[in-house]
Amino acid sequence: MEIRSTTDKDLDVFVDTVHAAFGHVPETPVEGGGLWWSALETDRCLLALTADGRPVGTAATHSFELTLPGEALVPAAGVTAVGVLPSHRRQGVLSAMMRHQLTELRAGGEFLSVLLASEAPIYGRFGYGPATYTAQLTVPRHKAALAAPRARGTVDAPAAGSDDGSVEVLRRAECGEILEEVYDRYRRAQPGALSRPHRWWALRAGQPPISPAPRYIAVHRDPDGVPDGYASYSIESGTLTVDETIATDDAVFTALARFALGHDLVSQVVFKHVPSDHPLRWRFADFRAGEVSGDMDWLYVRLLDVPRALTARGWFMDGELVLDVDDPFLGEHGRYLLTVRDGKADCVPTDRKPDLSLDISDLGSVYLGGTAPSTLVRAGHIRAHHPGAATLADTLFRTDRPPHCLHWF
Fold first, then answer.
1. What region holds the N-acetyltransferase domain (predicted)?
2. pLDDT score at 276
3. Angstrom distance (rounded) from CA 93 to CA 84
4. Are strands 332-341 and 383-384 parallel, antiparallel or unpaired?
5. Range of the domain at 211
6. What's the CATH code of the domain at 273?
7. pLDDT of the residue at 129
8. Global model pTM greater than 0.85
9. Residue 28, pLDDT above cutoff 80
10. Per-chain mean pLDDT for the chain
11. Which of 45, 121, 271, 308 has the most beta carbons within 10 angstroms of its beta carbon?
């Protein structure tokens, strides 16, 4: 079997192969773009070929930026379009492609890889761990009343309960530049968020509101008229569904939610991609008004260079931790001393006794701060070598803001 990078001439073969792997038929091109594969970077796509040259597998990566705790922006390879023809599954094709891809990414100087898993069990064996989570919130209109905030405001959130801005309803075709600019401001401050390169918006390659699917956009503007949030939504059969809500602070999010919940002629409002710990549920007069469903993993993270990855993110507590990290897929093992001082980390090989022993996928899960190391200790995935190790790790990896990712790729 041969695994090679593609060229522009291979795009049709690549697209046909990945669709066949999933049993889908490629969409018919429409005016205005919107084909998800149009954003693929052909020099970052792989084809697996049989000895006689037949394509049987695909894998690709997008060039993204990932926001880490501490608002550090780092390159991250977004793995996508991974598929193997049904006739060639369980013959080592997928493992060979994943190993080839990870080796190429590391050779190119990349130290983080991310993906969205179509099936949760698949990618753990390749070193990926779930690192962000998302849920859906469904609110019947008759329970949608918001309670007045009890707090007058704090230094950290002086406008948590008030909003002096305005909301304007636009069609998707009228506000492309606004969406791109507001999303970019949001993702730079949100741990776990991925960039949306300009070409995605220009090609309309993705899910709403990137795609050309008809949508209304509620754009929030601050008192000076500057856009600082939006909600992309559609209405069908009495249900208003919000594809995504992008807001630069909680007051803006609440204003957009209030707009959606106050819409006439709908029986319920569905908010997609809401973090399970989002304060919106606490804003309802009836705490049970919002029904949480679809609570699931979203962004998976894979570390390709442990010291580089750990020193790239910001930290919020000082301390030391010795991590014994096993990477069975790449046949590697390392023990590292993580030392954090004043928000910065140093990570070097060590022969000191470990505090924690863990798989590289577990390190991916805790990396962004969305999964507590103690949770994985209790689950039997991470081994704590002394009673205080899990608490110490929780303290170090904790972040000031939970990670969240909205982007589909």
1. 1-152
2. 79
3. 7
4. unpaired
5. 133-296
6. 3.40.630.30
7. 98
8. yes
9. no
10. 95
11. 271
